[in-house]
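Quick note —
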Amino acid sequence: MTTLLKRALIVCSAVLAFGLQAADAPAPATAAPATTAAAAPAAAPATPPIPEAKTWVTQHKTTIAGVPLAYTATAGTMRITNESDEPVALFGYTSYVRDGGDRASRPLVFAYNGGPGSASAWLHMGILGPKRTQLTDLESNTRGPFRTVDNDYTILDRADLVLIDPIGTGFSRVIGKGEGSDFWGVDQDARSVSDFIVRFLNESGRWSSPKYILGESYGGMRSGAVAYMLLDRHNVALNGVILVSPYMDVAAGNADMPLDLAYVNFLPTYAATAWYHHAVPNRPDDLQAFLREAEAFTRDVYAPLLFKGARATAAERQTVLQGLARYTGVSAEYWDKANLRMNESRFLQELLRSRGLVVGRIDTRYTGGNLNSISETTVYDAYSAAIAPAIVATFNDYYRNELKVQSDREYLLSGRVYSKWDERHTPPGSDSPAVVANTAIDLAHAMVRNPKMKVLVQTGYFDLACPYGTVTYFVDHLDVPPAVRANVSVEYYEAGHMMYVHPASMVKFKKDVGTFIDATRQGNDAK
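Predicted structure written out below.
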């Protein structure tokens, strides 16, 4: 899929023909051979001019928790060059800096979404920016007028913000000597984001600031590598890493591969989803008590049987089938036909099939009409359908009218670069790339080398894009000493992948991130 809008080349060709003509000469009885002038060579295709980076700076005021705050917004692009100082990309970003803040002590948070190929508008307009999209949770936010509101849950009162759009998303694009392959891959992406962060520190004079990175979804995969690359390549030590619904380990977090590990990690979220939709028999009122039961079944009964494979007895299999029906709301007959293994798309299609509904993947609290009741997999995501139109409309309106960004280019919410993504990753200490990426290894190296760096992990019970079981697995398997492991904290939300659309979780998100920054910033100066 093409992700960047390429400028057309204008080809100019000029052919000059010269003829000799004798005025008033009588025509000869026999025509003389015509004199033919040599044609000039075709001109080479014109090289389109390399676009310049542009920024738009505006001044604003807001009130957060009753406290007035003035800030400067800078939106636009930054030109990125290669080692030969040739331009290769325009990197899109938006920064928010509190007026009068002390550059040396004021925390600075670099944030991005995931995908790969997703722009930062989700975080920008969902929770982090000073304005957010007005959304109604669990409803289709698809009918205008779409509106923004002042965001009481922004962390701008705690830190300055830089929202990053990786190359191929938003207004970021390849230019000059750059190629998509320079940016579209696990390692290429992490390197380019790391380089942008260093470039921003140079241009903004923020080297002394307490520094953080915040990544959502695939932004977790990016953050593990970025935390390590910043330290290893640039000697940039972070105060903290914030992982929102992180995807860190392909083998543990992808139920399409197929690997038994992923099936095990996904099962607790199947249980949470079935509980939410009243699809489990004898449903208890207490979600947490139900999940502890489901987790124990997953760990002590389901996982051992999968690992036994063909050695499992018929009685053991029957016990597991009964448990699967009990905790997931999907019949034992269906699980048996699926050989005890089900990816999320099949589960989301099957759970409420009898009601004519399909369940959302990004947030399984959401449902939508089932477009094909006999299909085995979903054909769209009910959550994205309900939320994306409002995010796109409000971001473009806010960006172009309030932040005064002038561009005729489309802001690409999704760059659709996934099909071109280089999924290989070379972890620290290895000379060759692994075909299955796991940047939790990189994060562990960064944590050991920088033992004062803290990590906050946030995960939702109703997330089947990055289920909380995969997140817990990644945390439990970080290969770090006990003293370093104490630097990791995990917060759970009764919401989905973008937990901040859920009002109660929005409040908790702000509290958790704000507390984390306050506890890890240098000094006690609150400026």
